[in-house]
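Let us work through a complete example step by step.
Step 1: write down the sequence.
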Amino acid sequence: MKITAIKPYPAWSVWRNVFLVKIETDEGIYGWGEGGTSWRELGMAGVTEHFSQILIGKDPMQPGRIWQEMYRSAYFEGGRVITGAMSAIDIALHDIIGKKLGVPVYQLLGGKQRDWVPCFATTSAPTAEEMIESAGKLMEDGWECMRLSVGERWTESPSVFEPREDIPRQVDALIRARAQLGRKVVIGIDYHHRLSVAEAASFCQAMPPGTLDFVEEPIRDESVASYETLRQMTPIPFALGEEFSSKWQFLPYIEKGLTNYARVDMGNVGGFTEAQKVAGWCEAHYIDLMPHNPLGPINTAASAHLAMATPNFAWLEMFQRLEEREQEADRLYPGNFRAVGGRMEVPDRPGLGIDVDEDAIANSPMHPDDWVVSRLVRRDGSVTNW
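Step 2: predict the structure and record it as tokens.
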């Protein structure tokens, strides 16, 4: 079997811009993958076109070797846009292999470790009361882990973010949430690397012990030493790694004990080939995977297969969307995976077990006014982290 075509599709899909890749073969078997470097969809498309020049004619049954060739065959290896494209290609190759062998992808990864995938929910609301009410409804539906936040974190403008004003708002709301929701539910918050070390320490130290089970991405990841400093200032577990684009980027955070939950993103890290290496490394350090999954149904399916085959696994991220959006996803992605009550069933269909309405995606151009890069500023006009 040989690869005959690699088709990149930067497109609008259901609720956001996505980057999909379809790989076709001379046996008529095809696979779908998704890249995760949000707002760089056109960049990933360009990289994919470069890769297609060296991958056409290759054997799709050799994803590990193809991964190495994509990564090592240029002087300037790696980088998030490059590994985003690599991720989509690698996921699509595994979809092809599963279909060729007549088995679900999780079977290629070592087989089932569990019967279903535990998931966590995300909820936010303008006020603490509404946030807690939404969280309570999730608990009633069976969700046992969730990220909470109050408001959109902005002040008087959607482009203005003031950390020192946001911190007490989140602290007060989370303390109230724990008191009202009880101890059974797992509660975390995603700070989206918008804080400095001092700000993150202030936030964590304001939390009574046992209020939070994890803080996700409190500061940016470029400086490992900064995370070492922050680690010494709080006992709250960290959930890190959604933006990491290789096992090498995970290395210091795993070896130094800086992450307690590995937020592996299948669309960023390099697909199944790289994610399994990170998972094994984490297992050796008693770190559970908690995959980042804000993208489309293809990335969700890939993440679910990884979860099925990974022993050290905590929860898969799932967003609660309006039913009409879920129905649209069902239409565009036959076999669309859904989570119900914090559980996701993974079918035993060959490959990923999900398909794509290619004509619809091909005729759904990206929305230039949606999901564009948000440029946040402080009230004084200075640029701050998105």
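Step 3: interpret the result. The mean pLDDT is 94.
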